[in-house]
Design brief:
688 residues, alpha/beta, nine-stranded mixed sheet, phosphoprotein, glycogen biosynthesis, alpha-1,4-glucan glucosyltransferase (UDP-glucose donor) activity, transferase
């Protein structure tokens, strides 16, 4: 293979933008007296996806801005006690000076560093310490913007207190920074979502001289509309937004979000699809798209992530052996693991069409007399009473069998050793005595089961009204002997302390073969992104931010293990058929083809690394700074973009299942997923 072709084959996105050139730990920002504050309700407060965004982005933010960067959020003791190392800022510095002035006014502030990669500085505001000024803040908001807040809306009341406390702090900091340096500080304040956006509204109505950026990760009204089973995207331009927000009793929240959107110097969204939504619901087109990234762990050898897949897959095998005891009539070497996970939003997350497509896949596999079995996991947190007794019993009897066999193996080993020492070949009856046979028979009889394997691992509260279980009943996916698709609903998030699985979410994802996320409403979609950086192919849609991003930056997403279902331009039935066909095509790939595809999927991880995607946030901050401080336009570099970058089509495509040979040129060791031996170009030459 020539050097040029080799480089093309293993091409990565490392050189998309040299973000390392500006990672000076804040030296340039310090020289320019430039400061950045980032405010969100989920700073050191795990609630949803924004927590993951802020947390994972902290490393590149601190590498770029160092101590000139600080996060602002609410003080939630349960999270803060385990995630924040409390300590004071350097005495005499502007941060500590502003904190002291706030405390002198009666507010409680907790300062320190967040115990995540990058250890960013963090200031957490005690909401209760500002509650005495709530009526004053509401009065100011009403007089300046005409937005009234209902007294009983506790969540919005807390957002008002946090926003005005953050705005007061930033105003105090600006004065302190000017006093400390003797020159005007250049400050950019970045706010995420409507809860933190109140602070932006306060800064602008108080005319504090700072640049502001507002990012919406999903519009408030959009979430409510999609939850109501409305044809959202086809009617987006016709909604009467005021009426729709009023009917759902969120008009005041909607007004706050729209205020922050229009008062910000720069408005951003996390994806093109959310930008389109914001243009119609918030009446402003975003200035920048700021995609969400992840901290990508690089392995020193290409095959290491494949080895992790094999290790985690074996743990899932062990769960499946226990769950399907008595009906364990399928070959695990020919079993594929599909999964869907996330918040329990049955329609928005696409669980409805996933189950329907599984029924079609079951029919396809049975009609083709396929030996492949698909085990589909649905992981959504739901209300439960406890673990299903049948699930626990299955794991108990399989553990009993495993322990019994281990004891017998040890006994046979000793007997074999003694007999061989005597200089003769052992007889079978000498090795396995009557007592051992009785033990084995007891275990085998204990594996007998009269009913079918359970669909769910827990006893679900009001299971007659559960949308997943109702869809499973409607599609007749009951895990019978004849079904080639088995369904397991696990109604809680995974953790390493789980008595059934015994592995955390990341290990589980690594052990699966395909993640399926056919979402209808997904502003970004961290679940398929996490699959990608772990080298696991996934299904997404053109209504998710992740799917749109991949379509824009990859010439042929499917060849890289990113299957994009069309849920925007075709009907629901056609979308279900397309998803079922994607899963069927994947199930027909042989092991070698899946290995090649996982290799390609893992190559996309650089595309989702914050070291590349961080440039979008930098661009939005610099643009806001230049609007407020025009003199910085000649100093700050606003160049650098990935908009024109595309991952090229792979040099070789995976051979189609119908034309591929049943055997490989050289037999692979069972259980080994070392892909360095797979030469994609040799595959092409051998086929031609």
């Amino acid at each position: 293979m020539s050097k040029e072709r080799s480089q093309r084959r293993f091409y990565r996105a490392d050189s998309v933008y040299d973000f390392a050139a500006i990672m000076d730990r804040g030296q340039a920002a310090m020289d320019e007296n430039r400061w950045t504050f980032e405010s969100a309700w989920e700073v050191a407060n795990k609630v949803g996806g924004i927590y993951t965004v802020i947390r994972s982005k902290a490393y590149v933010s601190t590498e770029e801005m160092g101590d000139q960067y600080c996060l602002l959020g609410p003080y939630k003791e349960q999270c803060a006690r385990t995630e924040v190392e409390e300590q004071e800022f350097p005495a005499g510095g502007p941060l500590q000076t502003a904190v002291n002035r706030m405390r002198d006014q009666g507010y409680q502030l907790h300062t320190g560093t967040w115990l995540v990669d990058g250890n960013p500085q963090v200031i957490l505001f005690d909401i209760g310490s500002g509650a005495w000024k709530l009526d004053e803040y509401k009065q100011e908001l009403w007089e300046k913007t005409g937005v009234g807040i209902p007294h009983l809306d506790i969540e919005t009341n807390d957002a008002i207190i946090l926003g005005y406390m953050a705005a007061t702090f930033i105003a105090e900091f600006r004065k302190a920074a000017e006093e400390c340096s003797g020159q005007q500080p250049r400050i950019v304040a970045h706010f995420h979502e409507w809860q933190a956006g109140v602070g932006l509204v306060a800064l602008r109505t108080r005319r504090v001289d700072v640049a502001t950026v507002f990012t919406t990760h999903a519009t408030l009204l959009g979430r409510y509309l999609c939850a109501g089973s409305i044809d959202f995207y086809n009617n987006l331009s016709t909604f009467n937004v005021d009426e729709e927000a009023g009917k759902r009793q969120i008009y005041h929240r909607y007004c706050l979000e729209r205020c922050a959107t229009h008062l910000s110097h720069v408005f951003t969204t996390v994806s093109e699809i959310t930008g389109y939504e914001s243009e119609h619901l918030l009446k402003r087109k975003p200035d920048f798209i700021t995609p969400n990234g992840l901290n990508v762990k690089k392995f020193s050898a290409l095959h290491e992530f494949q080895n992790l897949h094999a290790i985690s897959k074996e743990k899932i095998h062990e769960f499946v052996r226990g769950h399907f005891y008595g009906h364990y009539d399928f070959n695990l070497d020919k079993t594929l693991y599909f999964f869907i996970a996330g918040r329990y939003e049955f329609g928005n997350k696409g669980a409805d069409i996933f189950i329907e497509a599984l029924a079609r896949l079951n029919h396809y596999l049975k009609a083709a007399n396929s030996e492949t079995t698909v085990v589909a996991f649905l992981i959504f947190p739901a209300k439960t009473n406890n673990f299903n007794v049948e699930s626990l019993r299955g794991h108990a009897v399989t553990k009993s069998l495993r322990d019994t066999i281990h004891d017998i193996q040890s006994s046979i080993g000793k007997k074999l050793y003694e007999v061989c020492l005597s200089g003769r070949m052992p007889d079978a009856n000498e090795l396995l005595d009557k007592e051992d046979k009785v033990k084995l028979k007891r275990c085998i009889y204990g594996l007998q089961r009269h009913g079918l394997p359970p669909v769910t691992t827990h006893n679900i509260v009001d299971d007659w009204n559960d949308p997943v279980l109702n869809a499973v009943r409607r599609c007749n996916l009951f895990n019978t002997v004849h079904d080639r698709v088995k369904v397991i609903f696990h109604p809680e998030f995974l953790s390493s302390t789980n008595p059934l699985f015994g592995l955390d979410y990341e290990e589980f994802v690594r052990g699966c073969h395909l993640g399926v996320f056919p979402s209808y409403y997904e502003p970004w979609g961290y679940t398929p992104a996490e699959c990608t950086v772990m080298g696991i192919p996934s299904v997404t849609t053109n209504l998710s931010g992740f799917g749109c991003f991949m379509q824009e930056h990859i010439a042929d997403p499917q060849s890289y293990g990113i299957y994009i279902v069309d849920r925007r331009y075709i009907g629901l039935e056609q979308s279900v058929q397309q998803l079922a066909q994607f899963m069927y095509d994947f199930s027909r790939l042989n092991r070698r083809q899946r290995i090649i595809q996982r290799n390609r999927t893992e190559r996309l991880s650089d595309l989702l690394d914050w070291r590349n995607l961080g440039i979008y946030y930098r661009q939005s901050r610099i643009s806001a700074l230049c609007k407020v401080y025009p003199e910085l336009a000649d100093v700050l570099d606003v160049s650098g973009s990935m908009n024109n970058f595309n991952f090229p089509r792979p040099i070789s495509e995976p051979p189609s299942p119908s034309s591929s040979r049943p055997t490989t040129p050289r037999g692979s060791v069972h259980g080994s997923d070392d892909e360095d031996e797979v030469d994609e170009e040799k595959e092409v030459r051998d086929k031609s």
